[in-house]
Amino acid sequence: MLLEVKDIVLNYGKIEALHGLSLEVGEGEVVSLIGANGAGKTSTMRAISGVRGVSSGQISFNGENVTNLRADQRMRKGLVLAPEGRGVFPGMTVVENLEMGAYTRRDRAAILSDFERVFELFPRLSERKKQVAGTMSGGEQQMLSIGRALMSRPKLLLLDEPSMGLAPMLIQQIFSIIREIAQQGTTILVVEQNAKQALTLADRAYVLETGNIVKTGKGSDLLTDTSIREAYLGVA
Can you give the pLDDT at residue 85? Predict the structure, then answer.
């Protein structure tokens, strides 16, 4: 397995947000994590990426125990997060934001090649290379956030709520691009409140409720699961 998360517990002060959560992602997979607001989805991504330390449990990446590594050390190993709320650098241009994604790299020719890849995936960014990120629309900032993550050459791309706050047509576009990124060979773990999009995209999926995994299966199977349809898709 590329990523193995075993029995992690995460606390915010006295509040336990994750209660011994376990999941795994195999190389080449697209895995989705769905759940309602407050289920612990973003906490899970913070724990995996190293943004937030865990109280107990273990996180292994590419066969190595990374539980005690800082977020930047995990990123250098290929565990890269496109965070909830986009997190672009608002005062920097599109190109400068993308350069920040590659700041740990020294392979200049490959970096230039990755710029081209990002601009092919996101033509809108190519049209706005010199635009300051803070003046862009929410959808454009989301594209930039994912593009910046790709500039780190991730072995595993963590996407936290990529459709948050976007219009339905843009959501379709973002998920279409995520599917293309996966087809190009990048392994993806996506946390998403839009359950239908997440399950349609996923090879496998986990359902999270109040800090616990309550169900797992193929994305296609969960899409037709009556309890999932009622709880997350609004249909019986």
Answer: 77
The predicted structure's pLDDT at residue 84: 83
The model's pLDDT over 207-222, given as tens digits with 9 standing for 90+, comes to 999 999 999 999 999 9
CA distance 25 to 51: 19
pTM (2 decimals)?
0.93
Main-chain dihedrals φ then ψ at residue 183, nearest 5 degrees: -65, -25
Contacting residues for 138 by C-beta, under 8 A, at least 6 apart? 86, 165, 166, 170
Sequence-distant (≥ 6) Cβ neighbours of residue 117 within 8 angstroms: 150
The average pLDDT across 86-115 equals: 94
Distance CA(171)–CA(167), nearest Å, equals 6
> What is the Cα–Cα distance from 44 to 6, expressed in whole angstroms?
12
> Concatenated DSSP letters for 33-93?
EE--TTSSHHHHHHHHHTSS--SEEEEEETTEE-TTS-HHHHHHTTEEEE-TT----TTSB
Of 93 and 86, which is predicted with more confidence?
93
Question: What are the structural domain ranges in the chain?
Answer: 3-88+137-233
Cite the beta strand spans of the chain per DSSP E: 3-12, 15-25, 30-34, 56-61, 64-65, 79-82, 156-160, 187-192, 204-209, 212-218
Name the CATH superfamily, with its identifier, for domain 3-88+137-233: P-loop containing nucleotide triphosphate hydrolases (3.40.50.300)
